[in-house]
Amino acid sequence: MKIIDEKGRLFGKLNLIDLLVIVLILAVIFVAVWKLGGSKAAEAATSEKHTLEYTVLFEDVPAAVCDFAATQEGAQLTNSGKLLDAHIVSVTDVPGEDGHFTLYVTVSADATYSGYVYKVGSQEVRVGYEYIVKTSEFEMTGIISGMEVGA
Question: Which of these, 25, 94, 103, 143, could form a disulfide with 58 (CB 3.0-4.6 Å)?
Answer without folding.
Answer: 103
